[in-house]
Structure formats: C-alpha cells, structure tokens
Amino acid sequence: MKAEESHLHLFQAYGIELEYMIVDVETLDVKPIADEVLKSLAGEITSDVTFGNVTWSNELALHVIELKCTAPTGDLIQLAEDFMDAVQQMNRVLAEFKAQLMPTAAHPWMDPETETVRWPHDNAEIYATYDRIFDCKGHGWSNLQSMHINLPFHGDEEFAKLHAAIRMLLPIMPALSASSAILDGEDTGYWDKRLDYYRKNQKAVPILTGQVIPEAVFSKVDYYSQIFDQIAHDIKPHDTEGILEPIWLNSRGAIARFDRGAIEIRVLDVQECPEADLAIASLIIHALKLLVEEYFIPLEEQKKFKTESLAAIFKQVIKYGEHTVVDNPAYLKAFGLNAVDEMSAVEIWHFISRKIERKYPKALDHWKDEINLIFDEGSLSTRILNALEANMEHDNLKMVYSELCDCLENNQMLKECLEEAF
C-alpha cells in the first residue's frame, strides 16, 4: 500500500500537541532539565516517551517539553482527559526534581540571552545549524509554547479545500488563544507577542516564514514549486552541507505535510489547561468544517483571498487580540456577515459559533463553558492582564503565574482558579 493510500480523510481524526515550560517549584524560573526528566522515565537519554494514548517529547529549548496524542484521534473529549492525567503524572515526576509544569505561551520574566539551554542530544546537529543561522537564544526561539492542531487530508482535492479554509480562518485564530502579553517582566503591548516574534525570528531567510499566512496554493505540485523549492534555494547559501530539509524549515502559520497527509496549524498560543486548549481546538475544527462544506461562500471564492490582505488582519489580531476591529468587508462577507462594515474579532467568532450550533447542534456542548468564558471574559492574555491589575512587580507576576500553574495541575481556567484562591 502506498503511503498516500493510508492517509486519513478530512476531519476523520486529529493530532494535538501542547508545549509547556519546566520551572523551579519555588522560584518559577525556567529549569532546563527536559533530558533528565525523559531519561528518568525511559531509563536512557531519549527524545520521547510514550504512555498509552499520550507521548512526551523534547523541544529545541531544554526547559520546554511537549505533550501530544500518540496517534490521531477523533475523540477530543477523551483526549482532554488523557492530557489532564498526563500533566498530573508529569508533575509528580517533576516534583522529584523540585520542578513543575507552567502553562502559557511565554515565560513572564525569562532572559533568553542568559537562560537558554539548547537540546544537546539526538538531532543536535540540526539544532546547532539553526542556532548558527538564526541565533536561537531570542524569545522567538526559546521562550514560546504553542498548541499545534494536525488536520488530515487525502489527495489534492481534499488538500485544496482544507488549505483554503485554514488560510481564511488563520488571521482570527489568535483572538481566541493569545496568552503571551507578558515578557521580560513587562506588558509588551501585544496580546500575542509570541506570534510577533514568530513573524520575525527567521528574517535572515524570509521565505521560511513568508507572511505566516500561507500562499494561495492548492495542489501538491504547486506547493512544492512555490514553497518548498523556494525554501531549498534560499537556505542553500546558509546551509552548504544540506543538513536542513525544506519540509522542516517551512514555518508558515499552517504547514503542509504531504508525507503524512496533514496540515499543521501553528498560530495558537497554549492555554492554562488542556480543557481550554481542546475547547479552542474543537471550535476551530468545526469552523473549518463549515468553510470546507462551503457553508458561507464557495471554495473558488475562498481561494481568491490574497495572502497580503489576510496577513494584514493577522498582524492586527496579534497586536490587539479579541479586541481587534476587522473592517475588511470582503473578509466579513466570507463568513456571512453581509450587513456590517466592521466587527471585533471576538464578535466574528461568536457569530461563527452560533452557525456551528445551527449546523452541528451538539458539537460544542461539552466545551460550552470554556468557550463562553473566553467570549465573556476575554483571551487568556486579557485575563492575565486583568489579574495583574497593571502591577508588574516580580512578586505579583509570580503570584499570578503560580495560579496558572495550579490551573494546569487542576485542569481549570484562570477565572475559576482565582475564584477558588480568593
């Protein structure tokens, strides 16, 4: 059987990945011990350890560890429970190292210039090459944690539908997930500072990230010629030994993996607990279903949206989060908003959620509380800023982020944690 024949079809199952920081249990400073932790679980140095439905893996920075489903799954409710159990199990292991997991997409006071320790084991040559070209000590490399959603497709026709839908939705996804407003002990002025760094951290070879919003390509042949071949050409002067593969280097906000028949969405900040992450994932997946089924506008109309216009909305959303005012009439009409000239990003999501409920009446029932909390109380960045009350003193930051660690351990959203604490 050819590899392509074994690929899943649209929305058959999903792969979810969540990245967390390892921090000292007392100081909450980053603790670069991912290799020691994985070794304690496996009995030897390894890049991943599997426990049933979940797998823990390393990342480029030694204080970051990733949790992912071992195989694609169609049951996100069960996956949220599996992730919660895995987080609690990992925290028990980390307690032996006087450490714990911390959520959110950015550590609030880490100094990447002095505290970054790179993974030194397998694939170290790849990481070293990255470091030589891009200097991987900045926030955009060593202080960023995200959720990745992997969505399957089977063949060019399904790829075209899925890629077109994802391009349409990417600009407003951070309005739901932004959690990186605080870096260097300060309010950055961005709701999603992780993505601001993400846009710029490979500027030495701009083609790798492009405009984050992928180009309007809708077949495997065109993707290779317009993206992978261009990446191979532009990286060659920096990587004369050919260590880095174009398929690894592609850093758009959604990347196509034709080898596994999937598109991986990468623009989502990780939340305070798996229940929140999976609620956002479920909302996004069902919004994509509406687009793929041409519920709002035909596929051919979706394909016509220019990368530049989508990227302009995206830049505003990473700056202002759910408060972003979207005033692109064509974009609003693409979601059935024909009678308005402007609308906030969160209002667009609220409108989409109502359409999901109409088309798939039970789809979001399990996640209703989490989704409504985001709609009513704001993104995690907003809720963190509100909890801090403009006080960026270290002790106050530590108090709020300690609560976030509790949220992760108890699989609760920040508002619930604060209500219990006070």
Strand content: 5-15%
CATH architecture: 2-Layer Sandwich
Give the biggest sheet.
8 strands, antiparallel
The average pLDDT is: 94
Explain the overall architecture.
The structure is a single chain. The protein has 422 residues and is α+β, with helices and mostly antiparallel strands. The protein has a single domain, classed as Creatine Kinase, Chain A, domain 2, CATH 3.30.590.20. 47% of the residues lie in helices and 13% in strands.
Describe the structure concisely.
This protein has one domain (3-13, 135-421): Creatine Kinase, Chain A, domain 2, CATH 3.30.590. It has helices at residues 34-42, 76-95, 112-115, 124-134, 139-142, 155-169, 174-177, 193-200, 220-235, 246-249, 274-292, 299-303, 307-320, 329-333, 345-359, 368-377, 380-388, 394-410, 414-421; strands at residues 15-24, 48-51, 54-58, 64-69, 99-102, 146-152, 182-183, 186-187, 254-257, 262-269, 325-326, 343-344.
Feature tags:
single chain, 422 residues, alpha+beta, 47% helix, 13% strand
Q: Could you give the topology of this structure?
A:
Blueprint: E1 15-24, H1 34-42, E2 48-51, E3 54-58, E4 64-69, H2 76-95, E5 99-102, H3 112-115, H4 124-134, H5 139-142, E6 146-152, H6 155-169, H7 174-177, E7 182-183, E8 186-187, H8 193-200, H9 220-235, H10 246-249, E9 254-257, E10 262-269, H11 274-292, H12 299-303, H13 307-320, E11 325-326, H14 329-333, E12 343-344, H15 345-359, H16 368-377, H17 380-388, H18 394-410, H19 414-421
Antiparallel strand pairs: 1-4, 1-5, 1-6, 2-3, 3-4, 6-10, 7-8, 9-10, 11-12
Helix pairs in contact: 2-11, 6-11, 11-15, 18-19
